Amino acid sequence: METFTDVLLVTANVGSLFDNVSGPNKTVHSHKPQFIALHFQEVGGKDYMVNMGHAENFFWKIESSEEMKDFDRVCIYVDNNFQAEDSFTALGSMYFIHNTLNDIYQYDFHDKDYKAVSGHSKHVASLNGITTVEKEKFPKNFWPDFKWSRKGFMRTRWIVHNQALDLVNVHLFHDASNLIACNSSPSIYSANRKNALRYVISRISDARHPPAPFFLFGDFNFRLDALSLVQHLSTSADVQTVRKDSSDEVERIICEEKDNDHQVLLHIEEKLFAYLHQAVFRENNGRALLKYDKEVSAFYDVIQEESIQFPPSYPYSEEYSQPTQYMNTRCPAWCDRVLVSHTAQKFIGKVCFCLSLPSQHSNILIT
Fold first, then answer.
1. Domains along the sequence of the chain with CATH
2. Is the overall model pTM greater than 0.85, yes or no?
3. What would the 3-class secondary structure string for the chain be?
4. Where does the Inositol polyphosphate-related phosphatase domain start and stop, copy by copy (predicted)?
5. What are the residue ranges in the chain where pLDDT is below 50?
């Protein structure tokens, strides 16, 4: 007879939020899981050199919260050593095991063996020498023309009721310029993310360790195909491309309605994406725009994804009074995802969406 375990997987980019932990705790209270995996990206926030000192307190608040009191085994991994530029990823992963859950083991990547999980294990440092976690920053020579940023992945491996599985925290590259993203289809940024994710899948599937079903969840920074989307949104508009005086470089793209007093329908700059009818991204969970969400399809040979039943997860307003409003900095997109290998698909029960933190990224969870 099969044994099933209630597992909660949560991913949250906390780059613009580092003092509020109510969202994950409320989620735990409502779903009552036995095993929880929390994957965080951009630990320490945007100004991590100043804020990283608060990292331990952030994780301690979650660990010591009332909702976590019945989880007697905890494993915490936080890469906060920003002085190690060649390896710093700003990733943080927390795992909670309920006191009713038995027969759970964690893999030691050095000894290549599983060990019983007990007590509270906390690693808040560079993570070098910690053998129950694998962490990599993407190599600098991947994209020499772009700024080397704190992007990479972090993997742990578990056995739950005799079933091995990898849980992988991922943070891929963002779109640095809305204008450059509109230049081609797919964009140069999309190509970079594709290379990075192929690298992750290759690393967690290579011959160093026995193969295992895997769950990839984090901030993939997947974006809508900007060129195709803008062409669609501006079908009935007059399009003006404004270039800088000193060069042929595009400074802004302005789409004006042909009637209605030439009202500006869409205004795009390097870090501005202002669309007049923003509700289209929220209505019916933005389903009308899913056809422009193309990046994940390149990986259907190795991964699957549950049907998306939530609106674009980025870039939400950071104002508490406007939790469902998008900022006009980027085109809304489904950046935060939960992807699973074909061999892990059979473990999935249902997918839920949670929007609870005033952050640019909403939290995505799967149970």
1. 7-223+277-364 (3.60.10.10)
2. yes
3. CCCCCCEEEEEEECCCCCCCCHHHHHHHHHHCCCEEEEEEECCCCCCHHHHHHHHHHHHHHHHCCHHHCCEEEEEEEEECCCCCCCCCCCCEEEEEEECCCCCEEEEECCCCEEEECCCEEEEEECCCCCCCCEEEECCHHHCCCCCCCCCEEEEEEEEECCEEEEEEEEECCCCCCHHHHCCCCCCHHHHHHHHHHHHHHHHHHCCCCCCCCEEEEEECCCCCCHHHHHHHHCCCEEEEEEECCCCCCEEEEEEEECCHHHCEEEEEECCEEEECCHHHHCHHHHHHHHHHCCHHHHHCCCEECCCCCCCCCECECCCCCCCCCECCCCCCECCEEEEEEHHHHHHCCCEEEECCCCCCCCEEEEC
4. 3-361
5. 1, 19, 355-359, 361, 365
